[in-house]
Amino acid sequence: MRRFMNCHTLALEEKSSRLQLGIGSTGMPATMRPFFWALIATLLLFLGIEPMAGADLVSANVLKRVKRIVVGQSSGTAFTIEVDGLQYILTAKHVVAGLQGNKGKIEIYEDKDNKKEITVDILRCDDPIDIAVLVPPAQVTVNFPLPPEMKGAFVSQEMFFVGFPFGDFGLTTHDGQSAIGFVRKAIFSAQVGKGDATILYLDGTNNPGFSGGPVVYKDLNIPNGEMKVAGVISGFRNDIEEVMKGDKIEREAITQDDLNRRVIRRLADGSFIKLSPTGNYVVTNTGVVIAYPIERAVELIKRSGIKGPQAQ
């Protein structure tokens, strides 16, 4: 049994991870090294410098466009693009599902304690395409070059997506002006047609809160790999698995049928357990990320005739 989970659903569970950096001997206390390198990276970002030109890094033209947005109880991610020199906000359609009609108010967060409410015109792609275009009254972010297209994107290449998981600003970097979204890497696994729509499948790890974030990549046909935005994150594929319990079993009691059904596990102490179903189920994240192509948003913008603010 399978179903899809939208990424805007907020989770209460918090997970912590530790990043270990392989840094040579510098005379600097180990506990300070991550802060030192984070400071350097943030300074480069603030200055608009892309370190290690040609490397697979998500640069300021992406990071400074991505914002956390809130609509009612729904928290998600949004980002800006330019079409014909005018700026628009893109997000997942389900993130703004609480807004009725063609106008509504959204909250845009610069960081945890700094937000602004704006009224936007709302354009929605036809189902099943999970993209909404929000037309702001004034420019929202920088307009560093970020072409909204999939030219030069190939199945099996690395892509990145950026967002605000769980709406938690504790999972963001801060460049002194605003929060920078959480960056994830994925592989462009497949592009599948579904009626008149196309779905992009990525192999990565997505979480609630990334919905509406950009999928970006480097165009392999261009020297130095220009960063482009390929699509909008919609959600992730999950699976429902049965919870099993393990009862101890002696080696002599293990049958060939047990082995064929793979219900025997050997523990670290050398003993064995036999798995049996409990009747309970758990939802798991398969690691399949779902996104929709950016071209559909661009088509909608041009077809609507609604003009965003001039980007400067």
From TrEMBL:
Per the UniProt record, the source organism is: Bradyrhizobium sediminis
Origin, by domain of life?
A: Bacteria
Return the InterPro entries for the record.
Answer: Peptidase_S1_PA, Peptidase_S1C
Task: Name the coiled-coil region(s).
Answer: none
Q: What is this protein called?
A: Serine protease
Please give a single GO biological process term from the UniProt record: proteolysis
Give this protein's Gene Ontology molecular function annotations: serine-type endopeptidase activity
Q: Which Gene3D superfamilies match?
A: 2.40.10.120
Keywords per UniProt: Hydrolase, Protease
Q: Which residues form the signal peptide?
A: none
